[in-house]
Amino acid sequence: MKILIVIPARGGSKRIPRKNVRLMNGKPLILYSIDNALRLTRSFGADICVSTDDEELGGIAESRNIEIIWRDQSLAADNITLDPVIYDAVKKMENRKCENYDIIITMQATSPTLRAQTLVNALEAFIESEHDTMISCVNRPHLSWRRENGRIVKNYEKRLNSQELPHNYLETGAFLITRRGCVTENSRIGEDITVYETDQREAIDIDSEEDWISAESILRRRRIVLRCVGRQELGMGHIYRCLSLANKLIGHDILFVTDDRSRIGIAKLEESYFPYKIISDDNDYEKILKNYMPDIVVNDILDTDESLIKLERKYTKRIVNFEDMGPGAFFADAVINALYENNPNKPYNVYEGSDYYFIRDEFLIETPKEFSAECRNIMIMFGGADPSNLTGKLYEICQVLHAKMPQVEFHFLTGFAYSHKDDIKPRPELNIFVHHDAKRVSGFMKKADMCITSQGRTIFELASMGVPAIVLAQNEREAEHVFAGMGNGFINLGIGERTDTLTIIKTIMWLADMPHVRAEMRDLQLSKKFEKGQQRVMKLVLGA
After folding, report:
1. Per-residue pLDDT tens for 346-404?
2. Under CATH, which number does the domain 221-352 receive?
3. How far apart are CA 299 and CA 362, in angstroms?
4. Which of 5, 19, 369, 512 could link 13 by a cystine bridge, Cβ 3.0 to 4.6 Å?
5. Is the pTM of this model over 0.90?
6. Listed residue (319, 110, 327) closest to 208, CA to CA
7. d(CA 199, CA 122)
8. 267: burial class by Cβ within 10 Å (0-12, 13-18, 19+)?
9. In which residue ranges of the chain is CATH 3.90.550.10 found?
10. CB–CB of 94/47 below 8 Å?
11. Closest CA to 13 of 170, 144, 194, 206
């Protein structure tokens, strides 16, 4: 089966002068169509020609070894439709190649956001069908109106939501595939017509400055894989951080990848509405990478090994890891370890310390409360999963503390994946209140005079809100997080399971009764500027 692709491209353009040769995102506009067409040459052996009247356009096409069909001036006027232009190119190519083509594809030079794979899929579907003609379209159902006999009348029977309206196909202009017998001087469309529906982002036809701006924005989009874990023993911090990152990466294509052991993480991803894939091993992961071909991979899975990074490197140009102290860190482009500092054996590509903490947006727009010398509100929170159940330990402690501190309210914030939530019940008579899976934690922090928490990412959020805190680490690794010290406004009691109840009670009561100490701790916390950390992390992820 012989296939010819014709790309018509005039030199003149009134709305955007010389648009076909102007650089879009660093590349002449016409080259997007030419490069897509070359994909069909590799896959189907298609011939390609550019029909033009312009020497500069011809030179750009020849730089890709594309055949040039020079148009007569009679075919280059503003009022000439594409039908005679395509017919002219087909006849000349058939004479030049001594071939009779079976399929003719018209590809506009003004569809830079069309993906090559979409074009391949469309041609495969056309070849397998019996249709005469296939037109690229986008489905845009809308309630619409028309003018008829001087009146405005509706084009619909019932006012429905857009997803319930009948299909309304608009031509994108990206491609038109047709049988050779349908190509005449006056038409390229046969009797039996079908459409190939494209994504909205692939439907831009450059006809105005607004189209140009939209297309450049789409072409700058990166395909980003966020690989993360969320398990009871590891907590939910990795999932939450990647969700925060994804929310800032608007304008890019995001795909989450997690393993089949991350059940609580999967539940949170399901709730987020971001697309995600579940893998059981590296073979599953490689299939996803090969199909998605990401521009960037972000690993938020703790320590990596060399083999994983080398696998990812086969399919992506940029790899960024969080909290990675494994051998794979040496092979990533950047490693962001906000919770670890002063590692003498760190690779050159490690960015560590609180300057690289990626804080959630809610803490950037919320303001700390005024300092209160009297401690009336104590918050207790130990992350999304609290694998050591330190919440349960503090729940028992606070029941004892009520008799000693009757004026204090104790507010427990239990996380999305906390498995003992049924055991932590509100006790209003003891001033104990429970809030499960709070959607806006900063609001609770703004009311708190102090907090008891674990040694993970929450310490940075508390610092941003100026909430003095007593810290109990979940495990040995978390105890290595150096930010949670007195120099940054925290009293660190070590690993929570090893800290006796009496020590915790005495520390809480002492800090509540020492307003000048809490004030000093608050000042140390608020001296940190976490908004710049978010900016630094975004630049490292995107390689900006």
Report:
1. 667 999 988 999 998 899 889 999 999 999 999 999 988 899 999 999 999 999 999 99
2. 3.40.50.11190
3. 24
4. 19
5. no
6. 110
7. 13
8. middle
9. 3-218
10. no
11. 206
Residue type present at position 418: Y
Q: What are phi and psi of 453, to 5 degrees?
A: -150, 175
Q: How many beta carbons lie within 10 A of that of residue 436, not counting itself?
A: 12
Backbone angles phi, psi at 104, to 5 degrees: -115, 130
- Mean pLDDT within 234-244: 91
Task: Locate CATH 3.40.50.11190 in the chain.
Answer: 221-352
- CATH architecture entry for 367-526: 3-Layer(aba) Sandwich (3.40)
Q: What tokens appear for 15 in the block? A: 């709305």
CB 46 within 8 A of CB 105: yes
- 3-state class of 226 per DSSP? strand
SS (H, E, C) 167-219: CCEEEEEEEEEEEHHHCCCCCCCCCCEEEEECCHHHCCCCCCHHHHHHHHHHH
pLDDT digits (tens, 9 = 90+) for 194-207: 999 999 999 999 99
List the structure tokens of 327: 């051998």
Beta strand spans in 32-168 (E)? 47-52, 67-70, 103-107, 133-139, 145-148, 151-154
77 contacts 57 by C-beta, under 8 angstroms: no
Measuring CA to CA, which residue among 119, 114, 116, 165 is closest to residue 140? 165
Tokens of 42: 């590799």
Residues in Cβ contact with 158 at an 8 Å cutoff, skipping those fewer than 6 apart: none
Task: Give pairs for 246-253: CB < 8 Å, separation 24+.
Answer: 246/272, 246/274, 247/361, 248/361, 248/534, 248/538, 249/222, 249/224, 249/541, 251/217, 251/220, 251/221, 252/221, 252/222, 252/223, 252/224, 253/221, 253/222, 253/223, 253/224
CATH 3.40.50.2000 domain locations along the chain: 367-526
Q: What residue has token string 């909430």?
A: 467
Give first-to-last CA distance, the chain, whole Å: 46
Determine contact, residues 178/187, Cβ cutoff 8 Å.
no
Helix, strand or coil, per DSSP, at residue 28? strand
User: Phi first, then psi: what are they for 138, rounded to 5°?
Assistant: -125, 140
**How far, in Å, CA of 284 to CA of 276, rounded?**
13
Q: For residue 49, what are the β-bridge partners? A: 6, 67
Q: How many residues are there in the chain?
A: 544
The candidate with the shortest Cα–Cα distance to 381, out of 457, 323, 464, 322, is 457
**DSSP one-letter code for 516:** H
- 15 confidence band (pLDDT: 50, 70, 90): confident
Nearest-angstrom CA–CA distance, 162 and 160: 6
Asked if residues 35 and 109 have their Cβ atoms less than 8 Å apart, the reply is no
3-class secondary structure for 291-328?
A: HHCCCEEEEECCCCCHHHHHHHHCCCCEEEEECCCCHH
